[in-house]
Write a structure and sequence with these properties.
- It holds the Pfam family fn3.
- InterPro entries: FN3_dom, FN3_sf, Ig-like_fold.
- It comes from Sitta europaea (Eurasian nuthatch).
- The chain is mostly beta strands.
- It has eight domains: 79 residues, Immunoglobulin-like (Sandwich); 80 residues, Immunoglobulin-like; 80 residues, Immunoglobulin-like, CATH 2.60.40; 80 residues, Sandwich (Immunoglobulin-like); 77 residues, Immunoglobulin-like, CATH 2.60.40; 79 residues, Sandwich (Immunoglobulin-like), CATH 2.60.40.10; 78 residues, Immunoglobulins (Immunoglobulin-like); 83 residues, Immunoglobulins (Immunoglobulin-like, Sandwich).
- The chain contains no helices and 62 strands.
- The strands form 16 sheets. Strands 3, 4, 6, 7 and 8 form a five-stranded antiparallel sheet that branches. Strands 18, 19, 21, 22 and 23 form a five-stranded antiparallel sheet that branches.
- A hairpin with a 2-residue loop joins strand 58 and strand 59.
């Protein structure tokens, strides 16, 4: 083992350690330092001198020994030295109650007889302040505001030996900010508060108070924005600076008056057409008011007043947008409710009424501003006819005929209602349609029409309308006569009434049929001795015909759809009265008379031929009437021959007739006009060329 070391000195500079110095021991590698206080010990191995034993108790007496160590082991402890550790450092607590004061305090230190406390700006400027005391607190005054100070303190014992020191940094509170400035933003209802920066201030707090309301804004800069201010309010603004020591005193409050609130209880009245009265409630902190009135065509006017009402001119059919602002030195109030007021629409102009029919009038007018709907009212007689439409035209139907109406067009808007005092227009409806009561025939082509007069000062026109044309008659009374109506025609009879107001609708039509026309031409032809053929031209309007031949000896008649007829049972040689009745489809009859007709004379009987000596033939017959002349005709292959006797004779001679032929012989009465009669009996005779007589 190495030699025992010898302690040169041992001392304590810190309350938890003792430093030992000794002479070096040859071949010693390490040294073990031991500190014992009777209750415990602490060992520390070091390489060389000096060495320090730590972890000791302050103000405690220790026995210090040193042992040398090498690979052979440890030496015996050196002779001990008694050393006492110094006092513990006081644990400081500091605060700055004001911007120029720091209060330092600490807890009592064991075995301490007094304390020494020094204070100095941490930046080294200024002088150091030092105080000794036996108390456990000190106050430093007249310090710089917002300045960081370094505080150092230690305790000493009864021998004046100082103990450990303790260092503490403490800042004084900042001074109150100065040069407070306010900038109010009326649009955003916020205020910008600014000030000169304060030495040593870390942050600032702006307090904005009004009554029980208090707003705060914290910032590290030299300005702060206080939002959400209320209109029509007076605020008191103060600024306090803060640092880690605390806050400064608040600045003296600065008054801030905000813009006035938007006026409320706005009322708009049209006290008379063309005049608007806008009124509102007074606003706190409002010095004067401006009312803006903008019409929907873009024109804007305004009124500046210190009162709470304004008058404006207005026009019909306009919508006005009205806003009221209050003003003071802080600026304009926020935009409140924008009211719109729509004046009553204008009365429609360019009113025109045109009759579309006797009971229907179409009313048109020019569109007007502000009208959403139009009401057309026709008042007349004992009733009112209404028409509502969004268009600028309306058709009033079912008007009473022959009635005077006052037509008024009112315009309506949803916002304001109806226009007023619109001038009416007078119109009169056309006369009422007459009602035909009776149609009577006054003659063959004369018709009398009667109707019920139901209008005042009206002229009535009766019209007969048919394929044959138009016939009219006019009267201001209740009847008129249609003249010269053609026969065999169908007519529609109607009547209208005319007045200065117009023309009525036609009355209901009544059909009228005139009797059929008599045929213009009639031809009678005797077909046989007892049959006569009658033919006639068409009679307009006739469907059937009844023809009659009448004589004292009898009557022959036929009823036919045709324009001809065969009449039998005709007596020859007789005068007949000829008549015809034309009958229409509905049974109307026209009686027609014509020139009398005489049937042809009767054919002779007993016709015989006798041969004469001069190669002639005598034709003999028995006459039915001696006053009738006859004619005899012979027709053969060798020639045709005829003869006519003198009146009263019943035979005649034909000379130089060739024999050896067969002749057809006809003896017929001679007519005054027309062809020979061909219906008398024919006799056939053969004339031979031998003998003195002719064969039958």
């Amino acid at each position: 083992a190495p030699d025992i070391p010898v302690i040169d000195q041992a001392y304590s500079k810190l309350s938890n350690s003792i430093t030992v110095e000794w002479r070096a021991v040859p071949e010693a590698i390490n040294y073990m330092l031991t500190a014992e206080d009777g209750d415990s010990f602490v060992e520390t191995v070091v390489k060389h001198s000096p060495g320090t034993v730590t972890g000791l108790k302050p103000a405690t007496l220790y026995r210090i020994t040193v042992r040398s160590i090498n690979s052979g082991g440890k030496s015996q402890p050196s002779p001990f030295r008694k050393v006492k550790t110094v006092l513990a450092a006081p644990i400081l607590f500091a605060r700055s109650p004001s911007c120029d004061t720091i209060v330092v305090s600490w807890k009592a230190v064991h075995m301490a007889a007094g304390f020494s406390v020094s204070l100095m700006r941490s930046d080294g400027l200024g002088r150091m302040l030092k105080q000794n005391t036996t108390n456990i607190s000190l106050i430093f005054t007249n310090l710089d505001p917002g300045t960081l100070y370094t505080i150092k303190a230690y305790a000493w014992n009864a021998n004046g030996m100082p103990g450990d020191d303790f260092t503490y940094n403490q800042r004084t509170r900042p001074n109150a900010p100065v040069d407070i400035k306010l900038a109010f933003d009326s649009g955003a209802l916020k205020a910008v508060v600014s000030w000169m920066p304060t030495e040593g201030a870390f942050t600032y707090s702006v307090t904005v108070s009004s009554g029980l309301l208090e707003l705060r804004c914290n910032t590290s800069s030299a300005s702060c924005v206080v939002p959400s201010l209320q209109c029509s309010s007076e605020y008191y603004v103060s600024v306090t600076a803060f640092n880690d020591a605390g806050s400064s005193e608040p600045t003296e409050a600065v008054s801030l008056k905000t813009i006035p609130c938007a006026p409320v209880n706005i009322s708009i009245e049209e006290d008379e057409p063309g005049h608007l009265l806008v009124s509102w409630s007074s606003v706190s902190l409002g010095h004067y008011y401006v009312v803006f009135v903008k019409s929907d065509d873009g024109l804007e006017v305004h009124c500046n007043t210190s009162y709470t009402q304004c008058h404006f001119q207005s026009d019909c059919g306009f919508t006005y947008f009205i806003s009221v602002f209050a003003y003071n030195k802080a600026g304009q109030s926020p935009l409140g409710d924008v009211f719109n007021y729509t004046t009553a629409p204008c009365c429609p102009g360019d009113l025109r009424a045109v009759f579309m029919s006797s009971d229907t009038v179409r009313v048109t007018w020019a569109a007007v501003r502000g009208a959403d709907l139009y009401e057309t009212r026709a008042a007349g007689g004992s009733g009112v006819v209404l028409c509502r439409d969004t268009a600028t035209a309306c058709t009033l139907s079912a008007l009473r005929c022959s009635t005077a109406y006052n037509i008024t067009v009112h315009s309506f808007s949803e916002a304001r209602g109806s226009s007023t005092s619109c001038a009416p227009q007078y119109v009169a409806t056309a006369p009422c349609s007459p009602e035909i009561k009776n149609i009577s025939k006054e003659g063959l082509s004369v018709i009398s029409v009667q109707w019920q007069p139901n209008n005042e000062e009206a002229t009535y026109v009766v019209t007969a309308r048919g394929e044959a044309g138009l016939w009219h008659c006019t009267s201001t009374r209740n009847s008129c006569t249609l003249m010269d109506l053609p026969c065999g025609s169908a007519f529609s009879i109607s009547a209208i009434a005319r007045s200065p107001a117009g023309q009525s609708l036609p009355s209901y039509s009544i059909p009228l049929e005139t009797a059929p026309c008599c045929p213009n031409d009639m031809i009678l032809t005797q077909v046989t001795q007892s049959v006569t053929n009658i033919s006639w031209s068409v009679g307009r309007g006739a469907q059937t015909y009844v023809t009659t031949l009448e004589s004292p000896k009898g009557q022959a008649k036929c009823h036919t759809l045709q324009t001809f007829c065969l009449l039998g049972c005709i007596t020859c040689g007789t005068n007949y009265a000829v008549s015809l009745r034309a009958i229409s489809e509905t049974g109307l009859t026209s009686s027609c008379t014509y020139q009398g007709y005489s049937s042809s004379a009767c054919c002779p009987s007993g016709v015989k031929l006798y041969r004469l000596s001069n190669n002639g033939i005598r034709v003999f017959w028995q006459a039915s009437d001696e006053t009738i002349n006859y004619n005899a005709d012979l027709h053969g292959s060798k020639g045709n021959f005829s003869c006519t006797p003198s009146l009263g004779l019943s035979h005649c001679d034909i000379t130089r007739i060739p024999c050896g032929d067969v002749y057809t012989v006809v003896v017929a009465p001679v007519t005054n006009k027309g062809p020979k009669l061909t219906f008398c009996p024919k006799k056939i005779y053969s004339v031979t060329c031998s003998g003195s007589s002719v064969g039958m």
